[in-house]
Amino acid sequence: MQAAVLLVLLLSAVVPAPAHAHAVLISSSPANNQVVNDAPAEIQLHFNEPVKVVRASARLTNDKSIDLVSSGGGADITLRLPSVGRGTVIASYRVVSEDGHPVGGTVVFHVGAVSQALADSSETPSVALDTAIWLIHVASIILLAHVVGGRLFCALFNPSDAGVQRPLFTAFAGFALLGSGLYLQGLDEIGSDLTFAGATPLSMAIRSNVAVAGGLFLVALILAALPPFRTRSFTLATAAIAIAVASAGFTFTGHSAVVTPAWLAKTCIFFHGGILLFWIGSLPPLWRLSRRPSRQMSLRSFSAAIPIPFVAMLLAGLTLAFLELPSLGSMLDSMYGRVLLVKIGLVALLCALAAYNRFWLTGAAIQGDISACGRLRISITAEIVLAVVIVGVASLWRFAGPDQLQYALLQPLSIHIHTEKAMAQFELEPKSHDTASVHVTILASDFGPMHPRAVTLRLWNPTAGVEAIRYELLNSGDGEWRAENVPYRSPNGWRVDVQVLIDDFTTAHLEAGLDDAVDIDGSASDTNRSQ
């Protein structure tokens, strides 16, 4: 049993918190930094998951800004572009994914030619707003666990203490926290700082799944704050309904909203969230019981019953890990992985405390050992502190995007392309802000040196419908041809064509797919042949 408890607690550390999924723009047409001959009538955006457009606008060469009308649905969004002249167009968008998290971005393309040098157009996050969102989220989860989870614990194991103290204050606190969280969500959706922006943020947020989750959490708080009924069965039923309603709230946010199969992910999140609330909510009444020797039998009952929900958490954790977790090989390269590592360390401490309580202190406390009761109270106090810290750390996943692991952990790629006329060693190194630098070394087909007149790079993605983007590579003087700030998010579906002008009459095309490339530090390499 000890091993099972420890295993389940560890799995609870690796199961993602229900709020860290973020939409990611996979491709656009026109592509970012593409030069087109004629102005397009629309801009097409393809995301990795379904999104809802909050706002979209375009800034033109004359600094005029126009709002764009969106259409489409799911993961494919179309922005209608009015007639524009030659020059650079900066199309900005802000979308909200089904998990409730807003993401903003920019697609820059040029009609005819580049008309202006652009500064970094990436959004600067509001530290004050992010901090406020984090604090409200942590406080809301702790309040929910204390009231709803604690009510269920008392209804099951300590009926004489089944009522919530100061229920009106509890309901008001819940309304204030959840209402504040909803308003902050709206500020984040519209891309505002931490400021009062009238009713607009609230009107935006109430149309999202976050509002549904917040409403369910508030209903659960009100149910749990009701005075105990005369009949214990009604009190227990109310407590069970409250925690079920709160658990249902978790299914409207986070990965369960976008992971497939959705029904399985939502079921796992339902049990995971409910057991989490019950566990945290059980700690304060357990601490109170440890001070009253006459009620030590409640400790025995809890100790005997707790393996059942822990087994449910084990099954939910295993399933969610299978559905959600990417490869663990490069976890430290992302914020998600670093937060996960910290949480695992904290849960390891919690495992030690839980095992110490369960197998060394509870039995002695039940037998009336005053010293054991004192140590048990100290240990439970430490568990409460750790529980709050773990909730705080897990809440950082709210800000782990939009660079999800499968898109953020991009490694430098290398591919060797060999033809009868020439060969090329193509290397791509991802940089910040979804760009990459390209380095190409040109050699003769017999591996001898070659001094081409010019080298041009063409990139296109037939799978995503992205037409060829052309780059004139610059000779660095050391035998390499380079291009900087090449838009790049993922190698999937992209093809490259290195056009080598050997002399005035001879051109070699070296074509390959980035899907065939390997990491620069990989142990193997694919060789591609073109014309």
UniProtKB/TrEMBL annotation:
Compartments where found: Cell membrane
Domain CopC residue range list: 22-111
KW ATP-binding (keyword) present: no
Signal peptide: 1-21
Coiled-coil residue spans: none
Record keywords: Cell membrane, Copper, Membrane, Metal-binding, Plasmid, Signal, Transmembrane, Transmembrane helix
GO MF: copper ion binding
Sequence ranges assigned to domain Copper resistance protein D in this UniProt record: 299-397
GO biological process, one term: response to copper ion
Membrane topology of this protein: Multi-pass membrane protein
Transmembrane segments: 132-156, 168-186, 206-226, 233-251, 263-281, 302-323, 335-356, 376-397
Pfam families hit by this protein: CopC, CopD
A GO CC term assigned to this protein in UniProt: plasma membrane
Major localization class: membrane
PANTHER family listed in its UniProt record: INNER MEMBRANE PROTEIN YEBZ
Name of the protein: Copper-binding protein
